[in-house]
Amino acid sequence: MAGRPLAPRIGRAVLLAFFSALFVLYVAGPVAWLVSSSLQTEAQITAIPPNWLPPEVNFGNFDAILNAAERQVTYETRRQGDPATGGFLPSGAANLIPSLWNSLTVGLWVAALNLLLSVTAAYAIAVIDFRGRRATLYTVLATRVVPDIALIVPLFLVIRNLGLINTLGALVVTYLAITVPFTIFILISYFEGIPRDLYRAARIDGCGHWGALRHVYLPLSLPALVASLTFAFLTSWNEFVFALVLTQNVAAQTLPIVISGFVMDFTTSFSFVNAAGVIAIIPPVLMAVLFQRYIVSGLTAGAVKG
Amino acid sequence: MLARLNRKFGYDERSAAILVFPVVAVLLVVAAYPILYSFWVSLHDIVLTRPLRRPFVGGDNYLRIFGDERFWLAVSRTTVYTVVTVVVTTVLAVLVALLLNETFPGQRILSAVLLVPWATPSVVNGLMWKWIYDPTYGLLNALLLKVGLIERYRAWLGDPDLTLMLIANAAVWKQMPLAALLLIVTMKAIPDDLYRAAKVDGANVLQRFVHVTLPALRPGLMLVLVYETMISIRHFDLFLIMTQGGPGDASFTLSWLIYVETFRSLRFGTGAAMSYVLAMATFLLSWAVIRWLGKRI
What we know:
Chain A: One of its GO terms (biological process) is transmembrane transport. By secondary structure, chain A is an all-alpha fold.
């Protein structure tokens, strides 16, 4: 590098800085604006021209939403939601905290069960040469070719006939159908990258398939396992359509459903909607950034082979 | 010897059966059974407001769909939306991958930032862009006015010519990161020697991109194209949050039509038939893309 002439190096630095700035503006800009609006009062975010940054940082929106349950928000009393600005608190605001717990519960169950189911199946398909191996793999993957919207009608009827409408269990089982095929696909690519000799050595040492999975494959695929857990939790946390159809009230509604209710309530103040959006964004974004390296290597394991 | 081989074979098969069984059981209940059930429903005239009479009508639901002009309108909206989303996502993803494949200070921070849209729930994505497009207080209006591109505020999502594109923009923002990640991994696998050889031959940056990077990116691009098509064609969340099919019928896509037909008109039979048509179209499309691109590798 040192031997190269100065001018091209400066040119490269300027280009990289320019495109990096464009990149950050496009990718992070919208979220930054969401966060900025959630920290402003209703009067401040409805100013024209808008305040790009909050004039002063104000957690009033979060406070009003998170404590809505204690104030009994009804259609008549919600104007007092934020006395400072006269903003309208969404009438479903009291459901936000329960739905947050619902989302968390469903997400953790899906993450755990998804890993348990997928690891065993992926091991069998990737490592054991059994009859029907290809058929099993294709069947599992084929279930994801059908669009979610096409599954909604029959799934609704199935869940309704089982009497499971408006339960968290119905959501967990449904989300597994989404996450399991993709997780199996990822884990298979990962397992196939583990040298076959290790497997043979384990078998010669007297390990059965269960032993080989536990002592060879699991310890060596930590990134893929963490990626699978994160992926399943995020999918469950973010899912909207199935939850919309399969849940009816606060007993099972997840965060996206309650928030979509805020958005479609035309009298709701923007500041509250934005604050609710920020609350929903924090857990998945933190998780993604925290586990960045695992996610990238886990999610993309199969990409090189195409 | 033969007996031993047999036993060994038996052990493998037995283990595989035990390991695969739980997944197969779950998928049978929540995927395979609903898919078949859906087909059965699509052959019956089931209307939820009339729950006791559900006559078998064979292919009538399908015939009725194909004669329904709303269906063809929805097909054209979905096609435009999907093509725009997939093409823009892929082009942006290639550009982002080229940037993040370079080594420079701050590159790791940018890679972390890239995951933010990927992790954002689609409902929040929808409300965020709806807020940006807001006719009175939105950032887009303020920004364009400041730069001088518009003279007065406009109701962006209320403009039938723009709605679909604006929703596509929100979709691209969320989908681009995963596509870029897949492409970066493919790029990292390109041997440096190829670039050096091209440089020795006197190829400039653009020529190196066209003749070295692009051909080597084919497997990654194929994966991205198929995956993005499959998920864009079924998008629903953004439409519900941002426009509900409107203004007029400007964002009346297939998934929106299926939702309206099923859960507002409660006509489950035709809803299921439409779902089946969409599923088959998605399947054939991905198959065609794989075949087409597969031949060119």
